[in-house]
Amino acid sequence: RSLVGSEMCIRDSNMKVENWTPVARLSLGKSHVLRSSLFINGSWSNSQKKKRMPVVNPAIKEVIHTVPAATAEDVELAISAAKSAFPIWSNYPVQKRADVLKAIADKLTERREELATVEVLDNGKPYNEAIMDVDDTATCFRYYADEAIKLEQRQNSKINVDNDQVGVSLRYEPIGVCGLIIPWNYPLLMAAWKVAPCLAAGCTCILKPSELTPLSALELASIAHSVGVPKGVFNVVTGYGVDAGEPLSTHPEVEKVAFTGSVATGSKVMEKAAKTIKKVSLELGGKSPMIVFPDADIDQTVDWALCGIYLNQGQICSATSRLIIHESVKDAVINKMKEKAQKIKMGNGLSPDVLLGPVVNDTQFNKIKKYIETGVNEGAKLFCGGLPEDEELKKGYFIKPTIFTDVQPNMTIWQEEIFGPVLCVKSFKTKEEAIQLANDTKYGLAASVMTQSKDIAQDTAKQLRTGIVWINCSQPTFVPVSYTHLTLPTKRI
Question: Does the active-site annotation cover 205?
Answer without folding.
Answer: no
